[in-house]
Amino acid sequence: MNAHPNSESSRVDLRPVIPNLSPAQSPAEQFQNETLRPILKMQNDLILDLYRHFLMKRKVKFDGMSIEQRKNWISKSVSRDNRLRGILLGMIMGQFTNRELSTFIAMEGEARRRIFDLLTQRLQSQMKDLL
User: Fold this and answer.
1) Is the residue at 12 inside a domain?
2) Mean pLDDT of 82-107
3) How big is the CA angle at 33 (ends 98 and 17), to the nearest 5 degrees?
4) Residue 60: helix, strand or coil by DSSP?
């Protein structure tokens, strides 16, 4: 019997496997490693495209900035721009299964912090792809 396209297992099966992660020391770290990292990796191209659009719409001259200025701009925009934060969070949460959503809700503050930290690190590590 084929799984329904929206079933939880088919949703999880689409995600890339992240090798060589250290064993989780807490439930929040386990959620980060088993759910958040694979989703962010899967959504990477979409995240980069969205951020490029964000830079263009804000008329940010990213190519004229030093590496440190770019890192600071990314960090500030991801932490302070509520519209950008909402869209990015929706891109990640939209990939959750029902069980993962329950886990997210149970540790929402910590999970949000981890999502935005991972997004910031991901964007900063791929700055050259944003030009």
Assistant:
1) no
2) 97
3) 90
4) coil
